[in-house]
């Protein structure tokens, strides 16, 4: 009997590994297909990513390449990250499809909107960084250059810099999801989260100081949205608790007198 149980466990593990491999192949294929579609336009993709800085450079200034292979590798690297960025819904869907069979029915109903919201919030954070933070930040940096100093940023250093900020703002905008997950899992209550507002505000500015460049503009533009999104997460958690309470009251059998 013990041998049969071990065989069943081994077969279950193998089937899970096969399923995981299948999901990873599908997610990787989506990224690869998008990369192949974007590869012929690698220079255009990089020029769009570099646009916030290019618009702020003084007249006659340009970006430079300080390494021999940078003119080829940097647009190539940018295209890879752009393909992964665009394929994020497919990647998350494959992750969801792998974990869904192990969830209860009520957990599946909750996880689907959670996954969709996560994707939208991550995209919103990255776009917020591109359209709002980058122009203000690069405008400040270029205007702060001492007299006689020409601002000519290396393209490889620029890409590494903005990728960190894209990821930082994308993850920062996931705060409502993290807040709801804490309440839903029972690790924290709404009252406890509400009482921690001052610490969250302090932590948001500290994170902004550590992640973003050392200027007040980018730090504030990261900290303020994080705090506001934290408040949104508390509000959503209250609505979730209220909805669950109403569903439990509806499911309770009525007692006839």
Short summary of the structure?
The chain has 257 residues and is an all-alpha fold. It is built from 10 helices and no strands. The longest helix has 39 residues.
Notes on the protein architecture:
This protein has 257 residues and is mainly alpha-helical. The protein is built from ten helices and no strands. Helix 2 crosses helix 3 (70-86) and helix 9 packs across helix 10 (216-251). It is flat, with a radius of gyration of 24 Å. The chain starts with a helix and ends in a 6-residue tail after the last helix.
Task: List strands and helices in order, with pairings.
Blueprint lengths: L1 H37 L3 H13 L15 H17 L1 H12 L5 H39 L11 H18 L2 H11 L4 H6 L1 H15 L4 H36 L6
Continuous helix count: 10
**Main sheet?**
none
Please give the radius of gyration in angstroms. 24 Å
Could you give the order of the helices and strands? HHHHHHHHHH
Number of DSSP E strands: 0
Q: Class by helix and strand content?
A: mainly alpha
Estimate the mean pLDDT confidence.
Answer: 83
Write down the overall geometry.
flat
Low-confidence stretches: none
Helicity, as a percent range = over 70%
Measured between the Cα atoms of the first and last residue, the distance is 53 Å
Query: How much strand content do the residues show?
Result: under 5%
Keywords:
single chain; 257 residues; mainly alpha; flat
